[in-house]
Amino acid sequence: MELLAFGDTGWGDELFYATLMTVAVSVTAMFIGFIFALIFTPLKLSKNKFLNLIGNFYTTVIRGVPELLVIYLFFFGGSGAIMYVASIFGYNEYIEINAFITGSFSIGIISGAYSTEVFRGAIQSIDKGQFEASKVLGLKKKIQFFKVIMPQMLRLAVPNLSNVWQITLKDTSLISVTGLVEIMRQSYIAAGSTRDPLFFYSFAAILYLLLTFFSMKLINKLEIKYSRGF
Amino acid sequence: MDIELMINSFPKLLIATITTLKLLSLSLFFGLFIGLLFAIMRLSNNIFLNKFSYCYSYVFRGTPLLVQIFIIYFGLGQIEYLRSTIFWIILREPYWCAIIAFSLNTGAYTSEILRSAFQTIKPGFIEAGKSLGIPKKIIFYKIQIPIAIKQSLPAYGNEIILMLKGTSLASTVTLMDLTGVAKYIISTTFSPIEVFIVAGGIYLFMTFIVHNLIKLLEKKFGYQI
Q: What is the pLDDT of residues A175-228, one digit of tens each?
């Protein structure tokens, strides 16, 4: 137990901050994922074949390629790409991107592909009459989306989004390979310096279990809120 | 875009794909048995077996696969007693550690898929079998199992694809699978995009094959019930 003490003697405070880091990366990644979903869901639903192809390309590639490979792509390629863009604008210094940004961006892209599928499914299962009725009533497109479609979509999407959240939370363990100090990386450091990997990795597993357990409790409350009015 | 590098790295990545496929097939094989065992335990009336199976699938589905591999590969070696037993021959090899972790992980997901498949079988089928005087064992093998296979095929197909992606984690315990070799080439040549296209293409091709295979099987088992 003294291994988990707070302060200089134990790893308690380090692991606590690492847990906060995991939560921060997951939330940021989920948020970035929503932005991606917001862009790609309309593309997947559009009648234009070309736009459709782009949307399908994104979800198929990201969901068919291992997360680790995507992370390596951004980890090794991220700063190169940004330096290339910067060189166009005449900035030739070396740029190193923060591990937090690379990590949450790559996990965000992965999470976005899953969110896109969830939103697409939810919108497609809304009754066609709802679209037609709101059109007949002469609602503007914006109002139609925000007041008619979105509330119904969220009700269908929230249960599936909780799955996406779980996937995202677990995927954040993979960005430990980039050196960002989250739960996995901190356990690796602690295990290395105390030569007690069994204890620290098991503790990491418990931390992840606690995170999933409590976030599921929270999401269940959200689900109740959004499933009103059926 | 460095086309030459892409062509040169393709055979290396293809050889590494064999390791990936070996890992995948072995863990799916063991995982199916583990899954079936835990699904049966979950459906039994014995509270202890039931709770044990529930906890198993909760823990393995609630923690990242990376943690599970690290516990088995780095953690178990720490137990002095284990080092003296015959298991050590298996546990000191990263290859088998990865397979154990993958099998246990996919077993947890498979058990949930099979459990829900068994639970959705209409009780009428089993009752009909019973009233015809068919022995319990034959009801299980000839009625419940075929229907459960049909019900669980789409979900199991997804699980195979998830596991295919999961095998990439073997590269974190020094195994040179497709992702491991890809990372090696990326870090020696610093051309992540080219290698990503080739390695990602191989992964996508495998996903595509699994997807279509499952579709074919679904058609085969697609009789109405």
A: 988 888 999 999 999 888 888 888 999 999 999 999 999 998 988 888 888 777
Chain A residues in contact with chain B using a Cβ-Cβ cutoff of 8 Å: 60-61, 63-69, 72-73, 76-77, 80, 166, 170-171, 173-174, 176-177, 184, 187-188, 191, 195-198, 201-202, 204-205, 208-209, 212-213
Best residue of A201, A206, A210, A212 to probe chain B, by most B CBs closer than 10 Å = A201
pLDDT of A106 over the 90 cut: yes
User: Cα distance from B123 to chain A (closest Cα, Å)?
Assistant: 28
Q: Tell me, yes or no, if the pTM score tops 0.80.
A: yes
For residue A81, what pLDDT band results from cuts at 50, 70 and 90? confident
Q: For residue B113, what is the domain's CATH number?
A: 1.10.3720.10
Task: Return the exposure string of A105-133: e unless at least 16 CB atoms fall within 10 Å of the residue's CB, then b.
Answer: bbbbbbbbbbbbbbbbebbeebeeeeeee
As given in the structure block, the two tokens for residue A140 are 């503007």
Task: List B residues 28-87 in contact with A (Cβ-Cβ < 8 A).
Answer: 58-59, 62-68, 70-71, 74-79
d(CA B175, CA B183): 12
Q: Is the ipTM of this complex over 0.95?
A: no
The parent domain of residue B57 ranges over: 3-220
Specify if A143 maps to a domain: yes
pLDDT, position A1: 62
- In order of A94, B37, B135, B146, the CA distances from B132 in angstroms are 78, 28, 9, 18
B62 closest CB neighbour out of A69, A198, A209: A209
Nearest of B39, B29, B51, B9 to residue B117 by alpha carbon: B39
Q: Is residue B51 part of a domain?
A: yes
Does any domain span residue B162? yes
Write the pLDDT tens digit of every residue in B40-84. Answer: 899 888 999 999 999 999 999 999 999 999 999 988 888 877 777
Cβ separation A197–B199 shorter than 8 A: no
Query: In angstroms, what separates the C-alpha of B214 from chain A's closest C-alpha?
Result: 15
Tally of structural domains, chain A: 1
